[in-house]
Structures are given as structure tokens and as C-alpha cells.
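TICKET #2291
ISSUE: user wants both folds in one file
ATTACHMENT 1:
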Amino acid sequence: MPHKVARNSRILLGPVYSEKGVAGLIGQIKSGQIMGDGGVVFFHTGGAALLFVYEGQLLTCIAVE
């Protein structure tokens, strides 16, 4: 999931909590629990330090083709 978000929007997510939070949000939108006709706010509260651990994987998935 973080690779798909990074590739499509260039938003880098931490691979633990942020990834799970966004996956849940996308799942609720797809299932209709959150309607697509309004705005959604996702508060990202951290996880940036872990991005350095996964730097190689993230750079590969956001590389311009």
C-alpha cells in the first residue's frame, strides 16, 4: 500500500501505523462507509524517521519512469 500511495501521489508513508491507517481509510472509501462526495482529512502524526530505513524501497517505487 505505501508504494501505491507514493507512486500515485508522491506522499511517503511510514510502513507501520501510517500505512495501516491509510489502508483502512481507502478501504472505508471503497466500501462506501465514507462517501466520495466530500472531503476527508487524514492526520499523519509521525513515522518519518522510519522512512530512512526503507529509503531504497521507497525511492524505487517513486522513480520517474
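ATTACHMENT 2:
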Amino acid sequence: MPGSELILFLLLGGAMISFAICAVLLNNLVRCTVAYALASICLAAIFFLLDSPYASAFELTVGAGLISVLFLVALILSGGEELEVAT
């Protein structure tokens, strides 16, 4: 990999890991879904950098698109309200 592609690869990898950690650790479910979608978009860009356009397109349509929309629709249909848990 040339220098510019390596830097872009490392930036996308770092962003993907940080968005994935945010998707796991955030308490708001809508923000978790958005973080998951952004991590999936970063992964699709990494696949594209690795010369795998079919895997990239599949990740964009299924990962970032379909799953995120299903999560958001499920949140909307279930009320989407988060209850405070007394600890």
C-alpha cells in the first residue's frame, strides 16, 4: 500500500473501532444505532480500499442500510422511550 492509502486505511480503521465501541457503550439506543451505521460505513470503505467492491456494496446495503433501518423502526414501534433504572 502506498503512503496515502495506508494513512486513509488507518484513519478509517480507527474511526470504525471508535464507532463500534460507542455503539456498545452508549445508553441511548438511537445513538447506538447511528454509531453502528457509521462503523458499518467505515468498514465498507475499508473493503473498497482493499479492492473488494462487492463486499463493500454488500456491507453498505445490509450493514449500514437494512440493519440500521430495522433497528430504528423497532425502536419507534416499541415506543423508543428509555426508562430510568434505579441503582
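RESOLUTION: both attachments delivered.
EXTRA DETAIL ON ATTACHMENT 2: The helical segments are 3-25, 29-49, 53-77.
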